[in-house]
Backbone:
C-alpha cells in the first residue's frame, strides 16, 4: 500500500462500484483551481497569449537539431545498433557461410564483442569517407566516398 502525504479516505464510486480516494480540502481546492485555468499544462489545449491567440510552437533553425543529435551521440558510449537485430544478422551470416540450419549458440560476450568491433569499423569508415567529401568541397556524403575510403584506408 503506497504511503500518502495526507490521510486519504476511500469512498465508493457509484458508476464503477470501486473505491476512490477523497482528497483533503486544500488539495481539492488546488485541483479545482488548476482545472479552471484556461490552458494549464497537461489539459491538452494550446497555450494562449493574454489576448487569447495561441503561441506559435517552438522551432529550431535548420541544422540545429542535427547538431544537437550529433553532440548527444558523441557524448554517449552506448551501442548505436540495437542488440536483437544485430544478433539476428550475425546468425543469418553464420548460416550463409557455414550452411548449417541447426541452431548456433553464441556467448553473449562474443556477440557484444562483434557488435563493438562492427560499430567501431562503421564509425571509422564514415569518418574517413567524410574526409573525402570535405576534400571534394562538398557537404553531402555519397556512396563513392565510402568506396574511396575503403580503397585507401582498408586495403
Residues:
Amino acid at each position: 500500500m503506497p504511503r500518502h502525504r495526507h490521510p486519504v479516505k476511500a469512498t465508493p464510486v457509484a458508476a464503477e462500484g470501486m473505491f476512490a480516494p477523497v482528497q483533503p480540502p486544500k488539495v481539492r481546492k488546488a485541483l479545482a483551481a488548476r482545472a479552471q485555468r484556461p490552458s494549464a499544462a497537461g489539459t491538452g489545449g494550446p497555450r494562449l497569449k493574454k489576448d487569447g491567440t495561441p503561441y506559435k510552437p517552438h522551432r529550431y533553425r535548420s541544422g540545429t537539431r542535427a547538431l544537437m543529435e550529433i553532440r548527444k551521440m558523441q557524448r554517449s558510449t552506448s551501442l548505436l545498433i540495437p542488440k536483437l537485430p544485430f544478433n539476428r544478422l550475425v546468425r543469418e551470416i553464420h548460416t550463409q557461410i557455414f550452411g548449417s540450419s541447426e541452431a548456433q549458440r553464441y556467448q553473449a560476450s562474443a556477440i557484444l564483442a562483434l557488435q563493438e568491433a562492427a560499430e567501431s569499423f562503421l564509425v571509422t569508415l564514415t569518418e574517413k569517407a567524410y574526409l573525402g567529401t570535405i576534400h571534394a568541397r562538398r557537404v553531402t556524403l555519397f556512396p563513392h566516398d565510402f568506396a574511396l575510403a575503403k580503397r585507401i584506408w582498408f586495403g
Residues 91 and 103 are 9 Å apart (CA to CA). The chain has five helices and two strands. Strands lie at 9-13, 18-22. The first helix runs from residue 25 to 36.
